[in-house]
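re: ur question from yesterday

yeah so i grabbed the chain u mentioned. its 301 aa long if i counted rite. heres the sequnce exactly as i have it in my notes:
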Amino acid sequence: MSSSVTTTPPAKRRVQAGTTEAPWVRWTLLGIAFAFLLLFLVLPLAAVFVEAFSKGIDAYLASLRDPDAWSAIKLTLITAVIAVPLNLVFGVAAAWAIAKYEFKGKAFLTTLVDLPFSVSPVVAGLMYVLVFGANGWFGPWLQEHDIKIIFAVPGIVLATVFVTFPFIARELIPLMQAQGNDEEQAAIVLGATGWQTFWHVTLPNIKWGLLYGVILCNARAMGEFGAVSVVSGHIRGQTNTIPLHVEILYNEYQSAAAFAAASLLALLALVTLVIKSVAEWQSEREQQAARDLPPERPTPH
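ran it thru and got these structure tokens back, copy pasting raw so excuse formatting
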């Protein structure tokens, strides 16, 4: 009686493992990716915190307690608190209209959503100066009514809203398109109102994508430099956000204080990454749970 041992060819094993490349190719690609991340992400991020604490924890805290630094922190938070909810409303409305309906001008609306990605933030800030500045289209009327937009908080908020409004919409549009509108139509047929349909059907399906878009929008709003730099006027204690405050300190050779303020933005980036990972993990978990549910059996009559 003879026994035979079945061996799987290396090529077939690679196909079963999900790749047709040799192991050394996979490890080489992983090594390049990790080296790139270490060189261009991890080391610069670590350098920010090392430089921020180079003069000790007391100097670090003193830099953050400085009146100008505290004013920049407050203005950054105020800007984000205003810009993110506005973009949340716009993003959901735009994504719902683009993904769920067919209408004339749909392609044009999609192009407008992508516009801030193709326009330099500096150009965006300049556009607001040309419209609302002293010599702009509405400048004389604003001066007559003592309304300040450029070189004031409203201009900073407007510029931030412009550069950040695609993030939420762009996260939701492909998600809503993939889900279709069958569930919403079924809810409406059963008598649900538009708000009930959104709250009980649409929102649960997009909640993790919505959270991810809000996180990205908030991170960009708090870290925006180019557009805000044009419209702010760089007035210390009044119109400087954290990125502008970092630039001023660094130009004045106060490197420790500059990196202390920059560490707040770096910390925000790390928190954003953690929340993003948690949101993606939770979304994948729910999708896997939905796939594992047994199919519903028809009820016998």
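noticed a couple things. Residues 1-5 have pLDDT under 50 and may be disordered. also The two ends are 59 Å apart (CA to CA).
anyway ttyl
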